[in-house]
């Protein structure tokens, strides 16, 4: 269900229950782009369009889904149409068009082309764990995650969410895990990492499908590079790539935890419900371990978003 997990700490308890949150999200329900709109963003049903509820609660976790639709209008197509129109006008009027005229003409062309442009939709899942005070967003980039947090904040009119502010440097700890083999027993290093020079951000080594205990990797670390991303398996339950900002990428639940679901023949909505229940429970326990390892609770404040 979630391929990524961008984490935000809530400063205050999340007060809204599922029913109240449902009513608030309904005010910003997703609607498709109008003929001259470039994009729309709103809330959709997290368990699929066949269902109506905008909030799905399981074990103290409130699952939501944001949907963004954009009209695809390539800049090259606009530029080509603008050049053709400019050439026609300049030839017909025997003069050069000024910058302001070109800008108005470009806006006119975009207005003409938008209603015929194709649309593309993207769904982003997120949930609030009301018991632990974490907001988790399935976003591959910080920009996408921040857009979802902003949408939720606008919908609720308040959302005191901050990025994690670890008391111990994740990059330093992950580097020590590789250099000294000092990872806790429940964290097993995988076969991928990203190493970056602390003094030269352009000096990067990306490894995939390699033995991270090899001399080649260790020599990079001894030369001063730090592990800013590291593939990990936690307690044979979750696998992911942990970044220095504590974002989780390539997140996967262990097959052993999903095996029973495959045997039950659930319909799509029931399958999503069961997958979310498993994922939310495992992530709750993983975040507790990350809290202990990186001292997240000890930090006085995080970066506001």
> What general outline do the C-alpha atoms trace?
globular
The low-confidence parts are none
Judged by helices, strands and strand pairing, the structural class is alpha+beta
Order of SSEs: EHEEEHHEEHEHEEHEEEHH
| Cα Rg | 24 Å
User: How many distinct helices?
Assistant: 8
Structural domain tally: 3
Helix content bin: 25-40%
Mean pLDDT: 91
Q: Strand percentage, roughly? A: 25-35%
Ends: how far apart?
25 Å
**Can you summarize the main beta sheet?**
7 strands, antiparallel
Number of strands: 12
Keywords, please?
305 residues, alpha+beta, seven-stranded antiparallel sheet
Written description of the protein model:
The protein has 305 residues and is of the alpha+beta class. The protein has three domains: 6-69 and 119-162, no CATH class; 75-115, no CATH class; 170-294, no CATH class. Helix content is 37%, strand content 27%. The chain has eight helices and twelve strands. The protein has helices spanning 18-26, 75-93, 99-113, 142-156, 170-180, 215-222, 255-264, 268-294; strands at 6-10, 39-44, 56-58, 61-72, 118-129, 134-137, 161-162, 187-197, 204-208, 225-234, 238-243, 248-253. The strands form two sheets. Strands 1, 2, 3, 4, 5, 6 and 7 form a seven-stranded antiparallel β-sheet that branches. The protein has a five-stranded antiparallel β-sheet with strand order 9-8-10-11-12. α2 (75-93) crosses α3.
Summarize the structure.
This protein has helices at residues 18-26, 75-93, 99-113, 142-156, 170-180, 215-222, 255-264, 268-294; strands spanning 6-10, 39-44, 56-58, 61-72, 118-129, 134-137, 161-162, 187-197, 204-208, 225-234, 238-243, 248-253. It has 305 residues and is α+β, with helices and mostly antiparallel strands.
